[in-house]
Amino acid sequence: MKIALMDSGIGLLPAAAAVHRLRPDADLVLSSDPESMPWGPRTPEDVTQRALACVRAAAAHRPDAVIIACNTASVHALPALRAEFEPGLPVIGTVPAIKPAAAGGGPVAIWATPATTGSPYQRRLIRDFADGVQVTEVACPGLAEAVQWADSAAIDAAVADAAARTPRDIRALVLGCTHYELVADRIRSAVQPAGAPPIALHGSAGAVAAQALRRIGATPASPAPAPLPEGRLTVILSGREAALPDVALAYTEGRLLAREPLARG
Q1: Domain with CATH 3.40.50.1860 in the chain
Q2: Signal peptide position in this chain (predicted)?
Q3: pLDDT at residue number 244
Q4: pLDDT digits (tens, 9 = 90+) for 4-55
């Protein structure tokens, strides 16, 4: 089994780690274009062309499915990606977890990039899945870029800025950019009021990984007395095969994917 994932940068790590936890025997192909980050300010046409290039590079490795582990690419490029690659290659998009977050009744906040915040796409998801629930959209300028380069001071500053604009009474927080899941603990600490019930954080990595397995008729691995053999990891950066970037190792998910016996190559 081989699963490909694409993103502008290391935002694909949470979904890749989720696939690895569900099926450690699966080969993974990680295709990104960090040289062109950030994608948020780019035109939809530009995002679409860059997403197509990333998936074409991954498709050359003949995966069974490809996860679009990027909210921006899912918003703008999913129709073009499906038109080119399906039905031969299932394409699984990423949707912010607004529906499960709103199921608790709210209030809910959604952290997303400035380009996504207030967009017709996000507003439509709120209308369809959070009708009657109080939802606050919070733009997070600079956070995805700070996460991409593991700039701790910039991450703290961007998280603090967004937290200051987040209502104190929220019951759930949607992480509307895949990069944000890499710093979920820091976000939780910033928004959690002292003495209040724990705020639920909702990312998309687990759901999109499970959906990818369903699309190819695979099931999560059952616990076994002996560990399953672990799959191979192929990394593609801006169309060229490379090692997993050192910056990925700043995060738990990156260290999981790089850890032996998960082989590189």
Answers
A1: 2-95+205-258, 98-202
A2: none
A3: 94
A4: 999 999 999 999 999 999 999 999 999 999 888 788 778 889 999 999 999 9
Options 3.30.559.30, 3.40.640.10, 3.40.50.1860, 3.20.20.80; CATH for 2-95+205-258 is: 3.40.50.1860
The gap from C-alpha 195 to its chain's centroid, in whole angstroms, comes to 30
Catalytic residue IDs: 70, 177
Architecture in CATH of 98-202: 3-Layer(aba) Sandwich (3.40)
User: Two tokens at 131?
Assistant: 């009708």
Its pTM stands at 0.91
Q: Give, in order, the Cα–Cα distances in Å from 207 to each of 50, 95, 118, 130, 262.
A: 24, 9, 24, 18, 23
Tokens representing 32 are 């990104």
- Please name the residues in contact with 217: beta carbons below 8 A apart, sequence gap of 6 or more: none
In this structure, the strands spanning 65-68 and 91-92 are parallel
Beta carbons within 8 Å of 125's beta carbon, 6+ residues apart:
95, 96, 98
Q: How far apart are CA 8 and CA 149, in angstroms?
A: 13
Percent of the chain exceeding pLDDT 90 equals 79
Segments of the chain with pLDDT less than 50: 260-265
Instruction: Show Cβ contacts of residue 185 under 8 Å, excluding neighbours closer than 6 positions.
Output: none
Neighbours of 253 (CB within 10 A): 22
Q: In one letter, which amino acid is 243?
A: A
